[in-house]
Amino acid sequence: METPKQLKDTSFSTNNSDNNETLEELERFIGRSLETSFIDGLSTSSISLSSSQNNIIEQLKQRLEKLEEIHELKFKHENEIKNLKQNFQKLTEENNELKAENDQKINFLEEKIKKGLQKIKSENENKIKSLKQEIQQLKSGNDRRPGQVEELTGERNEIRELENNYDDLFKRYETIREHCVRLKNSEKELKNSLAEEATKYEELKDIADSQLHQANLEIQKIKKEHEENTLGLKYRLKMKETYIQTLNLTIQGKDNQIDELNKLVEELMEKKGISGDGDDPEDGGSMLSTISYEW
């Protein structure tokens, strides 16, 4: 799996290669313009062009750095969103597990208490019924033997003990019920916390989407400006090259004119028999120097 740094390098590889090719092309144009600028006036204009191109190249480098910062921010937001998703999913799973466990415990306790109460109730009803029958028989027969009275007293004590046990069991049931209520309240609080986390997640997701949208717009704008600047530089360099070629052709034409004038002067000197070795202003050497100076 690629790291955010590797993903960023991959996403920038194409743009950086294109930008590097553009920069190398500009540097080659600048080098050619400096090599061909052997005339003083042309050299000055080429140097000023090189300075403006260097400024534009520097601006393009700064924009590329800005694009890298924007992509780093984008990966940071994506990682935050991913972590929030994982935390939200983890909380949801824990909530579901806790809810299932609590429901299972509550159902088990309720079933156990229900069975115990039914059993105690059934036993008490049977004993009370049998005692009532025995008391009724004793009353009808007027037979109050001491053994039977003691037996009835013991059974009455057992009934009271059973009632006390029933009260204890009921108190335990109330305690368990309160515990179940607390568990349900905890479950509600956990659900509210999950809802708040989900709301925060959606808000952060909206903010990240908005920032990513703005970053994409900024990237498109910078790419468009970069393309326009590159086209403008190519156009200006093409015009300068054309201007240099025109000057070279003009220089060649002037050289040809000078050669032709030199030939004409030599022919005139030969016809008139004038020597070119003296210091007379009218001799051929002075005429050539005058013509060259005027040009």
TrEMBL record:
Alphabetized Pfam families for the sequence: TACC_C
Region (Disordered): 1-20, 272-295
Keyword terms, alphabetized: Coiled coil, Cytoplasm, Cytoskeleton
InterPro entries linked: TACC_C
Location in or out of the cell: Cytoplasm, Cytoskeleton
Domain Transforming acidic coiled-coil-containing protein C-terminal as annotated: residue spans: 78-268
Domain of life the protein comes from: Eukaryota
Annotated GO CC locations: cytoskeleton
Biased composition (Low complexity): 9-20
Coiled-coil stretches: 50-271
Family: Belongs to the TACC family.
Protein name: Transforming acidic coiled-coil-containing protein C-terminal domain-containing protein
Species the sequence originates in: Meloidogyne enterolobii (Root-knot nematode worm)
